[in-house]
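Researcher: I'd like a structural prediction for the single chain below. Treat it as a standalone chain; there are no partners to consider.
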Amino acid sequence: MDRTISPNDLKKLRDSSPFALLDVRRKSDLDASREKILGATWCDPDAMDEWLDKIPKHREVVIYCVRGGSVSNAVVDALQAVGVQARFIEGGIEGWKAAGGDTVDK
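Model: Treating it as a single chain, here is the predicted structure.
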C-alpha cells in the first residue's frame, strides 16, 4: 500500500469508501490551529502507545499532521507495523487546504 494519498484522491475516497481519519498533529500545533478536517479524531502522536492498538484494522486509516512530514511518517510506520492500512495526506492539513479541501472549526 502507498504511504501517502493526495488531497484530490482523498476527496474521491470520501465519496466512495469508509475510512478512519486521524489528526496526528502535535499538541502544540493542534492548540495553535482553529481548524481540523471534518470527521477527524485527534490522536496525540507523542502518546501512540496509548491508542495504537485501538485503531481499526478492518478499514483504511488516513492521517494528517501539519505538513505531512516527520510526524505523519512516524505514525504511518507505527500503524503499518501493527497491520493497519494507513496512509497520510501529502502536504498535511496545509496541503489539504491548498487543494481546496474543506475544514471545520475544532
